[in-house]
Amino acid sequence: MERLDMENLKTKAIIKREKIIDAAVKVFLRKGFEKATVREIAREAGITTGAIYHHYRNKDELIHDAVTKHIHFISDLNAYKGDSLKPSSEIIEEIRVATSKRLSNLTAQRLHILLTANVLLDENELLKEYKETYESIIKKASDMFVYTYGIENEKYKKLVASILVAALDGFAIQASLGILDTNDEEYINTITDFFSKLGQHLIIKS
């Protein structure tokens, strides 16, 4: 019974954090990170500021979680199903689907540009966390190429991962400026096809 109660509490806590993050994203996009306040985020979420501080020590922690949820899609990918490695075709399809969702998410694109500008201009405490998170994303992406193509050449797998992340950043800028239509499936399919062929090139080079 106690275990069930604990699980219910954890579930409620997760739901509450999601509600806070969703509200924070709306406020951040309206006012920017610097001008947004915890009070405004609480009002948007329909809760008290105390409820937010129960989950987050400060606004920077909330910014980090909000951006991570919307941008770093690859951290949710897993090459294994239980103890077994998934077929490479299944991994490639999961990467393709995740990339498509990331590219078509205009909110994620704008958040990414907003955070990058914020940390580079102010060089605040978030810069270190953002750099570490960014490096972990590149590392995870490079590992996914290993699982997919069986390549362990450190130089080339990191290079391909860096190109993938850099391409997504570039598309984030173009989508935010309205140059690219985030609902255009043709360009998304072209991108994913490009990286599939790039992976095959990696096999040859290694």
Describe this structure in words.
This protein is mainly α and 206 residues long. Helices cover 80% and strands 2% of the residues. Helix 1 (2-35) packs across helix 2 (38-45). The radius of gyration is 19 Å and the shape is globular.
Question: TL;DR?
Answer:
By secondary structure, the chain is an all-alpha fold. The chain is built from nine helices and two strands. The protein is 80% helix and 2% strand.
What characteristics describe this protein?
206 residues
Distance separating the two termini: 55 Å
**Percent in strands:** under 5%
Biggest β-sheet: strands ordered side by side in the sheet: 1-2
Largest sheet: 2 strands, antiparallel
Oligomer: single chain
State the helix count. Answer: 9
- Work out the number of β strands: 2
Give the helix level as a range of percent: over 70%
* Average predicted local confidence, pLDDT: 79
Evaluate the radius of gyration. Answer: 19 Å
